[in-house]
């Protein structure tokens, strides 16, 4: 059995978008290892798509990078990787931080693409050149270039997540004990790490007011998101702000009918759970590239503005009335119509 090592340290969404690649490798008889940082570790530990997961504590290292203890920890992890004698390493991060794992992995074949950045091609000895970006096609297809390069069939695209422990299942049972299950269970997860990816708060409020009678609303987010959740009307449903870690969130999503979120880890996690419909509302990033993968019950939508997508990380490049116009679109009425179609209830129900 050949062994392959995937180097993809972050972010959560990008890790989820590489899980189909790992599953194809597994299906074709490879033993799969994965080098990942903190945010993705819980997604991959005990995930059937991997055999070994190497945790890189990047967040801790970043606080005091030039630290001899960090260097020794790096050498220890690297030693564990080299003991496995991987035949192939796939640098899917394609940045300097992945180069230091790829080049010293001990693998005979070290594969990267021509689009690699930050001199990361120096860590590889094979470069995939016969590819091109197509932002109208999902990034999952782009990630499968590694499998195609290895001569593997990529027709089956499969997302997997670790099964929740019984303790977590019982915990979610308790959180949902008083939820009205005669109505569709709808999760609203409005927050993400980049302000430019947030949909307008007033739009969320309109949506909440229109769905509060016909759906059992559940609000999720980390503790820092509490002001946002309270602003959009989390009191009109079950407010789970700060009450769900990653494992609990996966289990929650596997029990609901619909998840609504911006372009965020929550949207991608909901899709990977394979159970709920997902509506992802996009502002500055491309929905065709980063939306929830699939069709029918997986919807990615933006306002259809000429300036979209701009990929702005902090400040809107437009000024005046057009500044942050993408965050106000599409209007909540359009999202409401999509919800009605996905959940199969009529206008009279809202």
Produce a short descriptive summary:
By secondary structure, this protein is α/β, with parallel strands linked by helices.
Give an overview of the whole structure.
- By secondary structure, the protein is α/β, with parallel strands linked by helices.
- The chain is built from 14 helices and 12 strands.
- It folds into 2 domains: 147 residues, Glycogen Phosphorylase B (Rossmann fold, 3-Layer(aba) Sandwich), CATH 3.40.50.2000; 184 residues, Rossmann fold, CATH 3.40.50.2000.
- The strands form 2 sheets. A 6-stranded parallel beta sheet has the order 3-2-1-4-5-6, with helices on both faces. Strands 9-8-7-10-11-12 form a 6-stranded parallel beta sheet, sandwiched between helices.
- Strand 7, helix 9 and strand 8 form a beta-alpha-beta unit.
- Helix 1 runs parallel beside helix 12 and helix 9 runs parallel beside helix 14.
- The C terminus is likely disordered.
């Amino acid at each position: 059995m050949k062994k392959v090592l995937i180097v993809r340290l972050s972010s959560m969404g990008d890790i989820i978008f590489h899980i189909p690649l790992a599953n194809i490798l597994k299906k074709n008889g490879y033993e799969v290892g994965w080098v990942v940082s903190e945010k993705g570790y819980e997604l991959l530990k005990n995930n059937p798509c991997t055999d070994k997961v190497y945790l890189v504590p990047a967040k801790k290292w970043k606080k005091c990078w030039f630290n001899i203890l960090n260097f020794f920890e790096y050498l220890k992890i690297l030693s564990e990787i080299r003991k496995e004698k991987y035949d192939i390493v796939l640098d899917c991060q394609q940045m300097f931080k992945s180069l230091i794992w790829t080049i010293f992995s001990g693998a005979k074949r070290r594969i990267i693409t021509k689009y690699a950045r930050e001199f990361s091609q120096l860590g590889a000895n094979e470069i995939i050149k016969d590819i091109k970006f197509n932002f109208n096609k999902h990034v999952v297809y782009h990630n499968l270039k590694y499998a195609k390069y290895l001569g593997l069939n990529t027709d089956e695209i499969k997302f997997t997540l670790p099964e929740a422990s019984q303790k977590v299942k019982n915990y979610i049972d308790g959180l949902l004990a008083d939820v009205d299950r005669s109505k569709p269970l709808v999760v609203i997860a409005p927050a993400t790490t980049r302000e430019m990816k947030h949909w307008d708060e007033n739009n969320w409020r309109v949506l909440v007011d229109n769905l509060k009678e016909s759906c059992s609303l559940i609000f999720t987010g980390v503790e820092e998101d509490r002001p946002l959740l309270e602003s959009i009307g989390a009191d009109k449903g079950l407010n789970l702000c700060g009450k769900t870690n990653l494992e609990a969130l996966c289990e929650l999503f596997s029990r609901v009918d619909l998840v609504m979120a911006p372009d965020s880890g929550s949207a991608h996690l909901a899709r990977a759970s394979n159970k709920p419909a997902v509506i992802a509302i996009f502002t500055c990033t491309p929905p065709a590239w980063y939306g929830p993968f699939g069709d029918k019950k997986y919807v990615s939508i933006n306002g259809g503005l000429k300036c979209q997508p701009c990929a702005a990380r902090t400040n809107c490049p437009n000024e005046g009335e057009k500044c942050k116009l993408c965050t106000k679109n599409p209007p909540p009425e359009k999202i409401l119509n999509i919800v009605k179609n996905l959940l199969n209830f009529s206008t009279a129900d809202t």
